[in-house]
Design goal:
- The protein starts with 7 loop residues before the first strand and ends with a strand.
- It is of the alpha+beta class.
- A hairpin with a 3-residue loop joins strand 7 and strand 8.
- Helix content is 17%, strand content 43%.
- It has one domain.
- The N terminus is likely disordered.
Length: 152
């Protein structure tokens, strides 16, 4: 009997508003393929993003408490995690919320580990090219997005 492959899942926990905050805040990122998506444009994106954050066009802060790998996921060789969340208006004025989990890997550079929210219909990750286009759009036209947040 063939055992179905487990999904690769990363659960990211964020620090509460205060130390007394008992509620855990978390997001779950899913990856459906074994290939890792290199995001070579991320270092230059970070530089330009920080400039936009200074101008209050986008937001950035350090708030990741822990990243927990589940299923086939692994934190081996990961130096740092980033969560990029973005909200925009889609078709029929529908508000869409998306996010990606990005990691700085010791030997591979910046890679995309997972996507949020979970979409059971989707069977593979979006192409890296799609994410590159999103990064470029954030830098070139931040007003297109309702909100952009980078968390590390």
């Amino acid at each position: 009997m063939e055992v179905p492959e487990q999904n690769t899942i990363y659960k990211v926990y964020f620090q509460g508003v205060s130390d007394a905050d008992p509620e855990e805040i978390s997001l779950t990122f899913f990856k459906f393929t074994n290939e890792e998506n290199n995001l070579d444009t991320f270092p230059s994106f970070l530089l330009e993003y920080n400039e936009l954050a200074r101008k209050k066009k986008v937001y950035s802060f350090a708030n990741i408490k822990e990243t927990l790998p589940l299923g086939n996921a692994s934190k081996k060789e990961i130096i740092q995690f980033y969560v990029l969340l973005f909200t925009f208006t889609g078709n029929n004025d529908e508000i869409k919320k998306n996010g990606i989990l990005i990691a700085k890997h010791k030997s591979k550079g910046f890679i995309i580990l997972g996507e949020w929210p979970y979409n059971p219909i989707k069977t593979e990750n979006s192409a890296t090219l799609e994410y590159d286009k999103i990064l470029i759009k954030i830098i070139q036209d931040p007003d297109f997005f309702k909100k952009v947040l980078l968390i590390n």
